[in-house]
User: Which sequence fits this backbone?
């Protein structure tokens, strides 16, 4: 792991929400996308996962609720090891929000989509309705309840996608490129929403200013391995590190924002 000593000490009394130890994965064509990857995310943390295309970020995300089977290593969610016998409980604990909301929204109405997970848990109709109401209220989308998902704007779809996983009462949220397709106002709304949510969050993003605003901690994944782990502000201040891993702040980015978010410490493994 590449946490600083200060980070380790401050996390000693916290409960790990996600633990990955020595995780490796290869696709059927032989392409190895994760290589002995280890990571700990504590309860309540928001951690950005940065890295170039093809680095293994989405492959990592798909392991966390069992969409991709574990080949090598260990993964635990809230202390529960991922294996075939408990995969249903793991998927309740880990809410995965896909890159494209249209991959997540497939029912005729918003309330049917948000209620799909609770219905599959076998909950009563009354409890399903309660969970739908609470989840939509948490993402400020109650007014969308009877709408058709595919007629919503990109920002509305994103909020409803998050509601579909919140209705399962997860312990962890994993979001894959959540700012994709959002305008600046929609991005600001999303930041405010995610800041208000309690579950641990692992946020895969190419949007470095978004990561800086939302996530105190970031990791860089490159060629299937974590190559840096620490303060988001400190990582984004290291131009050489970013260049080595094909990351770049937007042209004209005001670097005073890095100082405003403070300097932490990190080291490369």
Assistant:
């Amino acid at each position: 792991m590449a946490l600083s000593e200060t980070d380790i000490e401050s996390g000693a009394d916290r409960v790990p929400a996600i633990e990955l130890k020595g995780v490796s994965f290869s696709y059927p064509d032989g392409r190895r996308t994760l290589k002995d990857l280890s990571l700990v995310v504590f309860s309540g943390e928001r951690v950005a996962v940065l890295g170039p295309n093809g680095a293994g970020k989405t492959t990592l995300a798909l392991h966390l609720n069992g969409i991709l089977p574990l080949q090598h290593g260990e993964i635990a969610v809230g202390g529960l090891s991922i294996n075939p016998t408990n995969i249903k409980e793991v998927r309740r604990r880990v809410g995965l929000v896909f890159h494209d909301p249209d991959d997540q929204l497939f029912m005729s109405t918003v309330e049917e989509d948000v209620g799909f997970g609770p219905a599959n848990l076998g909950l009563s109709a009354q409890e399903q309705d309660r969970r739908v109401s609470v989840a939509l209220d948490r993402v400020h989308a109650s007014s969308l309840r009877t709408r058709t998902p595919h007629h919503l704007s990109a920002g509305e779809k994103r909020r409803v996608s998050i509601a579909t996983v919140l209705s399962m009462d997860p312990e962890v949220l994993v979001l894959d490129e959540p700012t994709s397709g959002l305008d600046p106002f929609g991005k600001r709304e999303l930041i405010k929403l995610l800041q208000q949510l309690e579950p641990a969050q692992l946020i895969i993003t190419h949007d470095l200013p978004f990561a800086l605003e939302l996530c105190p901690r970031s990791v860089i994944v490159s060629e299937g391995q974590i190559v840096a782990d620490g303060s988001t502000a400190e990582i984004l201040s290291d131009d050489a590190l970013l260049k080595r891993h094909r990351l770049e702040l937007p042209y004209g980015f005001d670097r005073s924002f890095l100082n405003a978010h403070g300097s932490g410490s990190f080291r490369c493994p």
In short: The chain has one domain: 5-102+172-267. Residues 5-102+172-267 form a domain with the Rossmann fold fold (CATH 3.40.50.300). The mean pLDDT is 89.
